[in-house]
Design goal:
By secondary structure, this protein is an alpha+beta fold. It has 19 helices and 19 strands. The chain has a 7-stranded mixed beta sheet with strand order 15-16-14-13-17-18-19, with helices on both faces. Strand 2 and strand 3 form a beta hairpin. Helix 13 packs across helix 15. The two termini are about 30 Å apart. Keywords: ATP-binding, Disulfide bond, Kinase, Nucleotide-binding, Rhamnose metabolism, Transferase. One of its GO terms (cellular component) is cytosol.
């Protein structure tokens, strides 16, 4: 989905400017942010795609192209600072990325081996296979993590079982944000929020689980002590300064997991309440739906519902569930594009709005939809297996993908309220999905809750806010969220015709039995 929020390049910063490098699973951007007249303003200085790279039968991240794209965006920011923002100073830079993916560094301070994509076929079924090595109950007790084939632990065990050379050559394990911070600064670190997505970190102690490292035979030396968001790890190293023009600029760790950064930018009142009355959906290629709470919830019910405890800023916990997100919607369009018949995003939404409601129920978490060669063929196959009419109209496909998400959110909301023993009044949707008015209204209707959509660039905003906190220009999460509320508009959607969703929701629930 497209994003639209950064201010035009005509913004004239006059104080500290912080550069957020925000790389998601399908696209990335470099955004400059600074405060003008009490409002946080944004200027985009680079945008690029993040496409998987096929090498033989392997699906890899093209991390070297991403690194080049990042440097291009930083160079543009430095040039603007010299030519247009002459009263401003670039105060810091920080990188956030998607979770679970990682790379290795060898003793020669070079990248060791390829960086595998989490959708590579060798990871399928690994969530069950790791439980044959260490009991499922032990893994959950140690990590509080949702079991998914894409988790870093599953990827590591797949690498070990495939005899990857990194087990002989690697010296350090770095999550993707940390890999780019190392390329920026020359300093190795593992930021805490992204470390929590590995399924190897104990959420209570915020340290690596030695029980799991030993149980799976993973080298302890790889895993440096996690570093909290807001830490300055050094300056941009000289080789990068020459390429980008960013001389003597500090590298400050944001919450490097993009969802942790996005949650920081939710325009809600309060920080990590014990009984939350709001939840968030970070909506993009993935949807991450959850609550911000003060402590992890590693309960039998949490394990049964397959929720996850991920690290948030300032020691908070993001109790959430990973949901397939707009991936299906995006991949339907990609399949049509390969046929030379790709509609615009606006045309897709219009066709979905005019299609028959609930003509097709699509579970966004169905394993068949994780990485099919053709998403339309995969959905047609799913329809046949679940006793539904095979869609022949593109509008039905588009609507089914969106309604499936809304129904999945409804299920997740019920589970969140059970886990927290609280009533959630408001759902905050941030990220690119907040621009899809049809999906936002469907979410309000399906869940029977008020939906507040925006800001769109929440991840980059949260990245910038954490740099501001780390540099001392902001002093608390509450102050940061107040700045968000003052700076960015939101759209409110009230629930309508909620009863219409009851029968489809009951049928949808059978997909999970």
């Amino acid at each position: 989905m497209p994003a639209a929020e950064p201010s035009s390049s005509e913004v004239q910063f006059s104080g500290p400017v912080h550069l957020a490098v925000d790389v998601g699973a399908s696209s990335g951007r470099v955004i400059a942010g600074g405060v003008n007249d009490g409002r946080l303003e944004l200027v985009e200085t680079g945008r690029f795609v993040n496409r998987p790279l096929k090498v033989q039968d392997a699906m890899l991240w093209n991390h070297l192209q991403l690194w080049q794209d990042i440097q291009d965006g930083l160079r543009d920011a430095a040039l603007r600072a010299q030519s247009s923002w002459t009263q401003a100073t670039i105060a810091s830079v920080g990188v956030d990325t998607w979770g679970v993916s990682f790379g290795f560094v060898d003793p020669r301070d070079q990248i060791a081996g390829p960086v595998w994509h989490y959708r590579d076929a060798r990871h399928r079924g690994m969530a069950d296979k790791i439980c044959e090595i260490v009991p499922r109950e032990t893994i959950f007790e140690e990590t509080g993590m949702q079991f998914m084939d894409i988790n870093s632990l599953c990827q590591l065990i797949a690498a070990k079982q495939n005899g990857d050379s990194v087990f002989e050559t690697a010296e350090s394990f770095l999550m993707m944000g940390d890999l780019f911070h190392w390329l920026l600064s020359g300093e190795r670190s593992i930021e805490a929020s992204n470390a929590s997505t590995t399924q190897l970190l104990n959420p209570a102690t915020q340290s690596w689980s030695t029980k799991l490292l030993d149980g799976f035979g993973l080298p302890h030396k790889w895993f440096a002590e996690p570093t909290p968001a807001g830490t300055t790890i050094g300056n941009v190293q000289s080789s990068v300064a020459i390429e980008t023009g960013l001389h003597d600029v500090p590298v400050i760790l944001p919450a490097t997991h993009d969802t942790a950064s996005a949650v920081l930018a939710v325009p809600a009142e309060g920080f990590a309440p014990a009984s939350p009355d709001w939840c968030y959906i970070s909506s993009g290629t993935w949807s991450l739906m959850g609550v911000e709470i003060p402590q992890p919830n590693v309960s039998p019910l949490c394990a049964e519902l397959n929720f996850t405890n991920e690290g948030g800023v300032r020691g908070s916990t993001r109790l959430l569930q990973n949901i397939g997100g707009l991936w299906i919607y995006q991949q339907i369009r990609a399949a049509l594009d390969r046929q030379g018949d790709a509609p615009s995003w606006a045309e897709m939404t219009q066709a979905a709005a005019g299609a028959e409601p609930f003509a097709l129920l699509v579970n966004p978490d169905d394993p068949a939809l994780v990485a099919p060669d053709n998403m339309i063929d995969a959905i047609c196959g799913l329809a046949g297996r679940t006793g539904q009419r095979v869609p022949t109209d593109n509008g039905v496909l588009f609507r089914g993908a969106l309604e499936g998400l809304a129904l999945r959110y409804r299920m997740c909301l019920q589970h969140l309220e059970s886990l927290t023993q609280s009533h959630i009044k408001t759902i905050h949707i941030v990220g690119g999905g907040s621009l899809n008015a049809l999906l936002c209204q469907m979410t309000a209707d399906a869940c029977g809750r008020c939906v507040v959509a925006g800001p769109v660039e929440a991840t980059a905003i949260g990245n910038i806010l954490m740099q501001m906190i780390g540099s001392g220009s902001l002093h608390s999460i509450d102050e940061a969220r107040q700045l968000v509320r003052h700076s960015f508009p939101t759209q409110t959607y009230e629930p309508q015709l909620t009863d219409r969703w009851d029968e489809p929701a009951a049928k949808f629930a059978t997909f999970f039995e």
